[in-house]
């Protein structure tokens, strides 16, 4: 007995049909429990005697000639994604978690009349089923198990979407477990993310970096310009912040003598959500004593290129829409001020007055940021005139001082800091600094940030006395970088951010 029902446009079963099928399946669950009262779990046994996994059998016997018997007895389990019941022989396709499949053949001759009838009456699409029997290839050449026994491993109470259809994007995001069952791309993306993280760790290991963990609950937010999430600790009776960046703690580690450190973990920013932003996201940050932003740029290029090779086998990746994108070679490095000047047709310098920049922005219909400063206006103008024309991976170098309170001033260009942003596919993927390690200047920068906060800038950083105290004990010259893991997946796969996160936050 199998499900046969029409599905709406997004391939999820209609609500009335779901209600009817659920009632039928619940009745089967009761029947299984009653029939197997002596077996633990009834419709949900505690274990089944699996001897082989479906991917293993496919790897070993996937090329059998049609109508071949191996003599190998295997016990396998998988989810039923196709079922066809005939008089004396039933067929089912069992799917493993990685999407690999094997056919189960339930015949009257091998299991007997009672067992065959139970299969027809009790097994539905979506059930997890265990079958034991000989590994063969069918007359059509399909790798199969000719079952001598079978057992339901877990009864599905709700029906699956059509595994050959398409879920809407909203359904994919809200019910990722269904997405993983029915869509190969969803499973591929999860594996790509795992490969990326493994590659990042391997590259860091080659450069003698140490992986560390820093707090996600912090008494004071900092390390980036962003609005934090606020919570309350009952144990300490105080407000705490979900971290917006691990930077200030990782720098404490460098002060303590951990000269090369990195962390891959979650950040939380109470801001907008769109195709490139998520309130909760995975972040990589790393710091290297006696390095600078040039060394961090070279390291970042290596990290990204190695990750691409781990996923795609090459630095030329193919996005979900079929577009090829080249991440190989040496990446371009351009100056923020010089590239803006060339694109806008006038010269911009760190000495430009705020009033002049506002007038130019208004004349070109560029949005004026709240709490406008020289740096914020320069960055808005750069995004308007330059960002959209970047095609290749590009490091945008040397930013205004007032938007970069944690960055060292440029060693040879007055009025800018040694900071870069890496742009790939038109979005910012990573940022890197020559770190500000002078505690006196850092305090002055924090004070300026506090003044912005007092004027209503919700993203400005507070004065962090504990961090300043750590700096006062001496931090070596250092380079640092931060990169979004979700965005790295976007660069490699061409997917939006909600597709690269396994379970994204949705309203």
TrEMBL record:
In terms of Gene3D superfamilies, this protein maps to: Bira Bifunctional Protein, Domain 2 (3.30.930.10), Nucleic acid-binding proteins (2.40.50.140)
Q: Does the keyword Nucleotide-binding apply?
A: yes
Entry binding sites for Mg(2+) 2: 428
Question: NCBIfam families from the xrefs?
Answer: lysS_bact, PRK00484.1
Q: What is its main location?
A: cytoplasm
- Enumerate the PANTHER family for this protein: LYSINE--TRNA LIGASE, CHLOROPLASTIC_MITOCHONDRIAL, LYSYL-TRNA SYNTHETASE
- Give UniProt keywords alphabetically: Aminoacyl-tRNA synthetase, ATP-binding, Cytoplasm, Ligase, Magnesium, Metal-binding, Nucleotide-binding, Protein biosynthesis
Question: Where, by residue number, does Mg(2+) 1 bind?
Answer: 421, 428
> Entry's InterPro entries?
Aa-tRNA-synt_II, aa-tRNA-synth_II, aa-tRNA-synth_II/BPL/LPL, Lys-tRNA-ligase_II, Lys-tRNA-ligase_II_N, Lys-tRNA-synth_II_C, NA-bd_OB-fold, NA-bd_OB_tRNA
Q: Which reaction does it catalyse?
A: tRNA(Lys) + L-lysine + ATP = L-lysyl-tRNA(Lys) + AMP + diphosphate
Task: Tell me how this protein assembles.
Answer: Homodimer.
Q: What class of enzyme is it?
A: ligase
Q: Which residues form the Aminoacyl-transfer RNA synthetases class-II family profile domain?
A: 193-504
What is the name attached to this protein's record? Lysine--tRNA ligase
Required cofactors, per record?
A: Mg(2+)
The family classification in the record reads: Belongs to the class-II aminoacyl-tRNA synthetase family.
- Which Gene Ontology CC terms are recorded? cytosol
Matches recorded under HAMAP family: Lys_tRNA_synth_class2
Domain of life, per the record?
A: Bacteria
Q: Name one GO biological process term.
A: lysyl-tRNA aminoacylation
Which EC number applies? 6.1.1.6
Give any GO molecular function from the UniProt entry.
ATP binding
